[in-house]
Amino acid sequence: FVAHSNIQQLLSSIWYDGLPGFRRKSIVDKVICIAQVAMLFPLYCLIYMCAPNCRTGQLMRKPFMKFLIHASSYLFFLFILILVSQRADDDFVRIFGTTRMKKELAEQELRQRGQTPSKLELIVVMYVIGFVWEEVQEIFAVGMKSYLRNMWNFIDFLRNSLYVSVMCL
């Protein structure tokens, strides 16, 4: 049943709903379309939060668009984690900063303990809060028993616990 060509065509039409002709595009056009959605994901998310029933908001509910937005967001999160781990914000100040900014950076490096979080670290904190909020919403939506039956939720819980514990440390 599932392997039948008519069923596969139906599943493809459901998956790519909202992007007419996507399957017939050349590989270059597909990559451009995907890159456009990936780069504009913050704008799409903002539109969806402000006006979920507009045309763009309804497009965000389509399976392929949801996948692209979620994947783009998580890749952006991983990119921010890489930047934080390499202290890219300090390097940016060293290269492009004014004399005053470089002096402030040198003073901050003298007192490593007790520093306030950088802007990149605050973005990571916002993402972690979003991850925790997502899991809390899922618990309320499906119930605690059903939530605990899914083993992927244990992985999500462990991931969130590790992020929160690193922030606390």
From TrEMBL:
What this protein is called in its record is Transient receptor potential channel-like protein
GO cellular component terms, semicolon-separated = membrane
Matches recorded under Pfam families: Ion_trans
* Keyword DNA-binding part of the UniProt annotation: no
- Cellular location(s): Membrane
- Keywords linked to the UniProt accession: Ion channel, Ion transport, Membrane, Receptor, Transmembrane, Transmembrane helix, Transport
Membrane topology qualifier: Multi-pass membrane protein
Molecular functions (GO terms): calcium channel activity
The gene name reads trpl
- Which InterPro entries does the UniProt record give? Ion_trans_dom (IPR005821), TRPC_channel (IPR002153)
Highest taxon above the source species: Eukaryota
Coiled-coil residues are: none
Q: Ion transport domain spans which residues?
A: 75-168
